[in-house]
Amino acid sequence: MPHPLGIDSRTVAGMGPLEHVRLAGEMGCKAVSMGLQQEAGRSEGYAAWSLREDAALRREAQAALADAGLRIGLGEGINGSATRPPEDHAADMDIFARLGTRRIGARDNGLEREHAFDYMARLAEMARERDMDFGFEFSPVMTVRTLREALALVAHIGEDRVSVTVDALHFFRAGGVARELAELDAALIGHVRLCDAALKALGDHAEEAERGRLIPGEGELPLREFVDALPRGKTLGLDLSLPQAALGVDAARDYLVEVVARTRALLA
After folding, report:
1. Could you say which DSSP state residue 214 is in?
2. Which of the 8 DSSP states describes residue 162?
3. Does the structure show a pLDDT above 80 at 43?
4. Do the Cβ atoms of 100 and 129 come closer than 8 Å?
5. pTM for this one?
6. Quick one: how far is CA 180 from the chain centroid?
7. Angle at Cα 41 formed by Cα 242 and Cα 245, nearest 5°?
8. CA-CA distance, 229 to 178, in Å (whole number)?
9. pLDDT digits (tens, 9 = 90+) for 20-42
10. Can you tell me the distance from the alpha carbon of 138 to that of 1, in angstroms, rounded to the nearest whole number?
11. Inter-residue contact 172 to 140 (CB < 8 Å)
């Protein structure tokens, strides 16, 4: 495959970082996306964990990443806020940097446009100060909704300081077509999230994005065209809604073996 696979955090529900990393290594994947603590509502089957509060877990996570030959391709959970200035995220960025994270990912969380642009610019600067890339994710339910609007944000921040996280579901629901990706400078495409879905949206996008993500090949999105339009070598983070993953590590492993095999077959 011209594109290695990764396993994004949603795909493994509330699984701890050590199990997440080891499972991705077993699957032959090259990266993971990860937050610093277990998200609310994703704790079924797993004990609570926090890389923010548990120094021993951070050390174990670093060792697990090294053993598996993986990196955190995208550090998640550092987003725009109407109540917190960007500088409040400095400590979390420091942790991600110590973990060897490649890129910080962010969303505007519905901030007013000018505030969102300035907030993202400051986060990009903070990431760069720590030798990490910065990736912005657009979504039809955020302020920056489309690829075109995301490129306006890139122009505001500076092309050398930010890339665009392209989520297949957000991209197509925002009216995107594959040729738009093929026309971009390769450096502008950062993290890529891969999933499938029905061709037309069924209900609320936020709900679909959280619970309606299908295995590649199980839905109707033109994923082959999407992937073929990407620059070679971009890691595709599997970002799926898999209730089986919440049943524990063994259930997640069994299901992900099938998911990874089916994805590779689709894209071969």
Report:
1. B
2. -
3. no
4. no
5. 0.95
6. 20
7. 25
8. 6
9. 999 999 999 999 999 999 976 66
10. 27
11. no
CB 50 within 8 A of CB 16: no
Q: How far apart are CA 95 and CA 254, in angstroms?
A: 31
Type of residue found at 174: A
Give the type of residue at 237: G
- Where does 27-146 have alpha helices with state H? 55-68, 90-98, 113-129
Task: Confirm if 259 and 240 have CB atoms less than 8 A apart.
Answer: yes
What is the rounded CA–CA span in Å between residue 258 and residue 248?
Answer: 16
Which tokens belong to 240?
Answer: 């799926």
In which element (H, E) is residue 205 found?
helix 205-211
Q: SS3 letters for 19-72?
A: HHHHHHHHCCCCEEEECCECCCCCCCCCCCCECCCCHHHHHHHHHHHHHHCCEE
Taking alpha carbons only, the member of 264, 246, 263 closest to residue 14 is 246
Q: How far apart are CA 40 and CA 173, in angstroms?
A: 26
Name the one residue in this structure whose structure tokens are 């197509």.
Answer: 172
Residue pLDDT, tens place only, 186-199: 999 999 999 999 99
User: Taking the CA atoms of the chain, what radius of gyration do you get in angstroms?
Assistant: 17
Q: Which two tokens stand for residue 145?
A: 């909704």
What are the tokens at 103? 């890129």
State the residue for tokens 């610093």: 36
Q: In angstroms, rounded to a whole number, what is the distance separating the alpha carbons of residues 238 and 213?
A: 10
Angle between helices 113-129 and 147-157 (to 10 degrees): 60
What gap in Å lies between CA 23 and CA 248, rounded to an integer? 12
Whether residue 128 contacts residue 134, with contact meaning beta carbons closer than 8 Å, is answered with yes
